[in-house]
Amino acid sequence: MPLPKQGTEYTYEDYLTWPEDERWEIIDGVPYMQAAPTSIHQEISMELSTQIAAYLRGKLCKVYAAPFCVRFTKGIEMSNNQIKNVVEPDISVICDKSKIDKQGCNGAPDMIIEILSPSTAREDRFLKFNLYEKNGVTEYWLVDPDQRIISVHVLQVNHKYGIQVFDEKAKIPVSIFEDLKIDIGTVFPV
């Protein structure tokens, strides 16, 4: 656990000092440690990343799998000691290459996928949901390995997420691409 700070919030500057072999996120200045992913989690992540990467081959957008740092900023002028939201989504799709730097992504990805686990479900369903919606992540998927469903949240004109839920028999259209459908039948391990 990072050293406690009295009366202040953690920032990206703090994050940079923490051990590299530990996975941490900061949401609204509060640090959250991430457990190592399970084998099922990794299989799901690999399959989703592979389907998306195959589609994106030769295109402008890129897919990034964790660990990959995403910093939510109010502008590129913000310094490390002002950034209070740093996450490592399971999968990020970024179409604006000006957001990519040596540290990861500076700004909102176009799409984020989180794979639920008992240790992260609360953060993924509530804290990150609100963070991603507020920062304009166009499409946010929550993958539930236990229920074998995927909840797809797409940003609407009112800047709030609309939701659709798909089971393992579906082919999910990706809203940010007009002709990409993810075959869920191959995503969940048998």
- What percentage of residues falls in helices of 4 or more residues? 10-25%
User: What number of domains?
Assistant: 1
Q: What is the CATH superfamily? A: tt1808, chain A
Mind describing the biggest β-sheet? 6 strands, mixed
Q: Please identify the top-level CATH class.
A: Alpha Beta
From the 3D structure, determine the CATH topology.
tt1808, chain A
Mean pLDDT: 92
* Count of individual helical segments: 3
The neighbouring-strand order within the major sheet is: 3-6-9-10-11-12
List SSEs in N-to-C order: HEEHEEEEEEEHEEEEE
> Which percent range describes the beta-strand content?
25-35%
Unreliable runs, pLDDT <50, ≥5 residues? none
Radius of gyration: 16 Å
Oligomer: single chain
Q: Using the alpha-carbon principal axes, give the shape.
A: globular
Cα-to-Cα separation, first versus last residue: 36 Å
Number of strands: 14
Explained architecture:
It is a single chain. This protein has 190 residues and is an alpha+beta fold. It has a single domain, classed as tt1808, chain A (Alpha-Beta Complex). The chain contains 3 helices and 14 strands. It has helices at residues 12-15, 39-56, 121-134, and strands at 23-27, 30-34, 62-65, 70-71, 86-87, 91-94, 100-101, 104-106, 111-115, 139-144, 149-155, 161-167, 171-173, 181-183. The strands form 4 sheets. Strands 3-6-9-10-11-12 form a 6-stranded mixed beta sheet, sandwiched between helices. The protein has a 4-stranded mixed beta sheet with strand order 5-4-8-7, with no helix packed on it. The protein is globular and about 50 Å long. The mean pLDDT is 92.
